[in-house]
Amino acid sequence: xxxxxxxxxxxxxxxxxxxxxxxxxxxxxxxxxxxxxxxxxxxxxxxxxxxxxxxxxxxxxxxxxxxxxxxxxxxxxxxxxxxxxxxxxxxxxxxxxxxxxxxxxxxxxxxxxxxxxxxxxxxxxxxxxxxxxxxxxxxxxxxxxxxxxxxxxxxxxxxxxxxxxxxxxxxxxxxxxxxxxxxxxxxxxxxxxxxxxxxxxxxxxxxxxxxxxxxxxxxxxxxxxxxxxxxxxxxxxxxxxxxxxxxxxxxxxxxxxxxxxxxxxxxxxxxxxxxxxxxxxxxxxxxxxxxxxxxxxxxxxxxxxxxxxxxxxxxxxxxxxxxxxxxxxxxxxxxxxxxxxxxxxxxxxxxxxxxxxxxxxxxxxxxxxxxxxxxxxxxxxxxxxxxxxxxxxxxxxxxxxxxxxxxxxxxxxxxxxxxxxxxxxxxxxxxxxxxxxxxxxxxxxxxxxxxxxxxxxxxxxxxxxx
Amino acid sequence: xxxxxxxxxxxxxxxxxxxxxxxxxxxxxxxxxxxxxxxxxxxxxxxxxxxxxxxxxxxxxxxxxxxxxxxxxxxxxxxxxxxxxxxxxxxxxxxxxxxxxxxxxxxxxxxxxxxxxxxxxxxxxxxxxxxxxxxxxxxxxxxxxxxxxxxxxxxxxxxxxxxxxxxxxxxxxxxxxxxxxxxxxxxxxxxxxxxxxxxxxxxxxxxxxxxxxxxxxxxxxxxxxxxxxxxxxxxxxxxxxxxxxxxxxxxxxxxxxxxxxxxxxxxxxxxxxxxxxxxxxxxxxxxxxxxxxxxxxxxxxxxxxxxxxxxxxxxxxxxxxxxxxxxxxxxxxxxxxxxxxxxxxxxxxxxxxxxxxxxxxxxxxxxxxxxxxxxxxxxxxxxxxxxxxxxxxxxxxxxxxxxxxxxxxxxxxxxxxxxxxxxxxxxxxxxxxxxxxxxxxxxxxxxxxxxxxxxxxxxxxxxxxx
Lengths: 466, 466
Prior knowledge:
Two copies of one chain form a homodimer. By secondary structure, chain A is α/β, with parallel strands linked by helices. Chain A folds into three domains: about 1-90, Winged helix-like DNA-binding domain superfamily/Winged helix DNA-binding domain (Arc Repressor Mutant, subunit A); about 110-115 and about 360-465, Aspartate Aminotransferase, domain 1 (Alpha-Beta Complex), CATH 3.90.1150; about 120-355, Type I PLP-dependent aspartate aminotransferase-like (Major domain) (Aspartate Aminotransferase, domain 2, 3-Layer(aba) Sandwich). Chain A is about 40% helix and about 15% strand. Chain A has 15 helices and 15 strands. Chain A has helices spanning about 15-30, 40-50, 50-65, 120-135, 150-165, 180-190, 205-215, 230-235, 255-270, 295, 325-335, 345-355, 360-385, 410-420, 450-465; strands at about 70, 75-80, 110, 175, 195-200, 215-225, 225-230, 240-245, 275, 300-305, 320, 390, 400-405, 425, 440-445. The radius of gyration of chain A is 31 Å and the shape is elongated. Chain A starts with 14 loop residues before the first helix and ends with a helix. The relative contact order of chain A is 0.12. The model of chain A is unreliable at about 85-90 (pLDDT under 50). Chains A and B meet through helix 3, helix 4, helix 5, helix 6 and helix 7 of A and helix 3, helix 4, helix 5, helix 6 and helix 7 of B.
């Protein structure tokens, strides 16, 4: 035994652990070969001028983990670990993760997914959380219901019926941590019978990614001013379609009821499936909300998706899914053993928020707040952009689309200029299946901006588009 | 126009909405044919003895939704909806969901996933939540980082290195709402190159379900007292394995380091992949925790999974995943557009809980609490079960396995008797790939039971096994 062990009492690592580390390294590297005998506890303690407890602690830990074995009265020996066959690399140097630089703070953030930064009802949410925690402490040591808290599903049933004409039972509702999770479930349920999914073009990029990840062939179908091009859908050969009929993402078009009925007919013919994403139905500033497709055909092949991300908070990760009756048994079959995916405390906080009436009041407040921003945005656009610009998709949601006249600098150049001026724009082309848009269009989100920012940001933006 | 409309002012539905509903139903049923003209607002108001606003409200809503169209000076007409081609079914009668009967309250709940019902640190969690809410309100109106809050990942890196020898950077960590979500990500990343996954038999049923749902061939591999049978793994032809090496679920075996190194060798040969689930490593009552596989080979093909469900709460849905460097670019590629799946508020609450030192104190408290229950359980088993019974997997976690001697009534009969006596047992056979166990074994969870329940429940159980 010619190996040296060095114990450093100034090191914060306990002495026994220092010895453990050194012996373990020698065992793993092969410097201490299999079946070699270690010094006795007494001898090594004397040699290193330390207590026997230190040596005993290291040996016992190495023994417990299988690096050493012991023989009665003979002490500890090195186990055979096949270390020759497996010369282990030393662990990489400790990677002290550095917090990434904070995201750029834009002066004018036109990202369409931004909410008003002061809009989160923190005092009410705090109160509801405390109520929920008080009532739920005993339930926090068990897994909850896989589909989500029954009371929340029951409140959602009632809310969706009143506000969106959705007709369902709580048994059809699944609480999810966001759209991608809802679509994961839907993709799992559909992939046995369906190969291709039609999506809107332009359209939301996230569903494309989810279906692609599940091995679906994702087929873009053009969008017209009355929504998805139904003739193109029929010609696509797809048996599943993902649509945003009440507020097309990103163009804001509303599918009229005649087209809705045709779409439902399409789904009824030969076991096809509609996935209706009703992501921001609460935010409609002109006229009444458009009832859902699901409400037109409650027993049809329609999966209905909704979320709390647009009106309450996208950071809470709280959304829901209404499965058609026809998919329920497959759902129960496939996900029987699954646990819920949203915190019980957060679900119960939302129950309190809805039961105490805060949710519906919050919806009304947000509708007024965003309508003001929306109306101001349109005024400012009219003032600063020439008559050649066309505003598309106004009257709802958190963004509009500007279609620029010919002779503009093009999207890439406008985004480059905007970035230099502290303006954040989400590229419209990212919503296009081809990655390009035939005409230059700008996604102008207004949710996160205040009145001054809208005034100044739009003026600045208009100059960059010349 | 011979259709009758009836408005009932005692109904809680607004009058305009009553009229809207009736006209809409007639349009959809075809009783009001396409292009037929509706009565003028003034005439219908007079006929129904109501205000013009009521009629105007109904017409405008129907117009906005496309059921009606209007002609200058001529009033409103019914749109062509192809209703002949699509006789819509009336909506199903409102399904007033009834809350399902509460789950049976067992007198003695031996379910292995139960935590101590008083163990959730509600006052500390409340304080941490309030701290997190105060500091995060501005961030609640944006989507957060897809992989999870950076600070939480950084704290986890540090904790996992100290407690489990895991060596990684925060960039490799993904915060998830539980094991199934972690495995969903892993399955997505592996399914391009791998077809079959080996799982432990007996083993946890949830991973089997997740991999099955992702189209993997799930191959059971026997478990021996030194963990997964490595010869059987090599013979299985699988290129992915899911293992619980530090506390085999359900048998509680610990894989010795020699076998760990062999398993790592297996993974290193030809691009195979280990999924290491370290679900309850904090709860070890005899000797020191066994360091993770990942720590033995930080640059190897090892995905490491952990959770807060066993020590803190399974209802919070908070777990984590450490990806190997080799899978990082595929992860970023596939999930680039995905949003986080755990509430930012809950992640930040956990950050506070860890930063303020509560987590490590809670771990120590729980280890002491469950060690007491564990030791008592073993005493009571020794007292009431005969010498023929064998206790498997003691010394860690929240359950042990009892292997009964020949001549016992069999699992099905014991479960039947137990149920009649108010005893909850999770069937051991559900962890076996075949659904059957060669010998009768009982999963005896003790986490949710107090000392009196352990004493009485085990005595009662022992009588049922005769």
